Amino acid sequence: MTNPGCLVTSDLSPPSPARAVEVDRTSPIPLYFQVASRLQELIEQGEIGVGSRIENEVDLAERLGVSRPTTRRAIQYLVERGMLVRKRGVGTQVVHPKVRRPVQLTSLYDDLSAAARYPRTEVLDLRVVPAPAEVAEALQVAPGTPVTWFERLRYANDEPLALMHNAIPTGLLTLDRTELAKHGLYELLRRAGIVPQVATQTIGARAATAAEARVLNEKRGASLLTMTRTAWDATGKALEYGSHLYRASRYSFELNLSAG
Amino acid sequence: MTNPGCLVTSDLSPPSPARAVEVDRTSPIPLYFQVASRLQELIEQGEIGVGSRIENEVDLAERLGVSRPTTRRAIQYLVERGMLVRKRGVGTQVVHPKVRRPVQLTSLYDDLSAAARYPRTEVLDLRVVPAPAEVAEALQVAPGTPVTWFERLRYANDEPLALMHNAIPTGLLTLDRTELAKHGLYELLRRAGIVPQVATQTIGARAATAAEARVLNEKRGASLLTMTRTAWDATGKALEYGSHLYRASRYSFELNLSAG
DNA sequence: ACCCCGGGTTTGTCATGACAAAGTATTGAC
DNA sequence: GTCAATACTTTGTCATGACAAACCCGGGGT
């Protein structure tokens, strides 16, 4: 049943070339990660066809010259990322590419800049104010504590798209208008070594007020998407509160959910 | 440094009672899961204070009478769920409760029943039709393939809340109106052993048409939240396509995102 | 023809032992 | 007193070995 030099035991895909599949024990990169990367590469390049079965753990481990736990961990890593599915007594299969688990916090960072929609940001306001009740609760500080508050208008393709209000704790990061106009907030945070780990968002909708409609170039009463978000780092420290308005005619949220 | 009978080595929280912390080796429940559940319980009950450090792996393993890999796996399980944070050379800490990774793939009905909002469902339509282009693409079948199509109106507290259109592949499950009126779609799927694993959703907003407004008891032009979703099982088979309308005045989406 | 049972395959769980790497605290020299 | 080197603690990685549980398939009995 073993098939030396070939990672797959499939009768669907043609036999893979007998490439060298080996690990580098002098590398500081963990063995399990080397194995996982190699497998992922093969899958993404389509060398292991969708639906075909991977070689079983024991044989794979022996052939690569690593222990079974290491192999297991590599496979587990890809299972958690949604690339593989395992069934006891059956084997490990490559799942359909549609079912890949996505990164979830990155999808909503600066979705525009990634989509080549020529984003532009106008900073309408930027100052330090005492936190209003809602902001204070979200950021877990006492009401009235100074926070950095700013308001931005984001364009895409030279059309207004979103009106964004944000608050961050003072001391976390000092922002200036030109930086804020040139980069997304999350990019600036990351650059300062601040890594948002978890966020809760609430997405709703309502009609635009006259003032909002004017700024966003919509008619009064037009549908707007509302989004409020609070982000925390790994230790639970609140990093950011945001209350945003999007033109429903030009924007929608796309989410990828996964169970488990 | 060890503190027998007490899971925490914290100088912040009062010493926990010396409760029996043991595992049941006769149980079919895996040991690592027993340990993880026990830890989770202690954390959720606040017996292990936020920010305090857990006893280290080696000692904990010895005291529970299990091996270190088993203990590690239990802790890892909670780390992946966002309850614990580990740092090499430091230890394992309990993170702020706000930073908990939630279950993400739930249905509206589940949400409502959990919130005790007295959900009720009216089945407006249920039949097998040839798949229109949009549905066919989402479910990955040829256009015109028969699919089960149904339309439901969901109430909460005796008020209309959402108008839901769904399509599922025929052969997956035979639905009947009374079952569909009594239970959520996802509950029926689960009961048939069908487990949605991944889903993509698009959330937007638009104004209600006259017909939609009438059904949902809104004024014409009122803001509605739109949500379209496709769900797949672990092997990448499409399970469900849904196109839903929610009254923005009564409903919003709450999401929990996490990086990693 | 159908059903049950057993053997083979494959993943799931667990123990033991060992060393490496990172972070913290202590100690020593200047 | 301050700074750097060292020791210690704690998690990270990896190997080996063993048994259990679930699944698939084919053979034999009814």
UniProtKB/TrEMBL annotation, chains A, B:
Keywords: DNA-binding, Transcription, Transcription regulation. Pfam families: GntR, UTRA. This is GntR family transcriptional regulator. GO terms for biological process: negative regulation of DNA-templated transcription. InterPro entries: Bact_HTH_transcr_reg, Chorismate_lyase_/UTRA_dom_sf, Tscrpt_reg_HTH_GntR, UTRA, WH-like_DNA-bd_sf, WH_DNA-bd_sf. It comes from the Bacteria. GO terms for molecular function: DNA binding; DNA-binding transcription factor activity. The keyword Transcription regulation applies. Gene3D superfamilies: Chorismate lyase-like, Winged helix-like DNA-binding domain superfamily/Winged helix DNA-binding domain. It comes from Spirilliplanes yamanashiensis. Residues 29-97 form the HTH gntR-type domain.
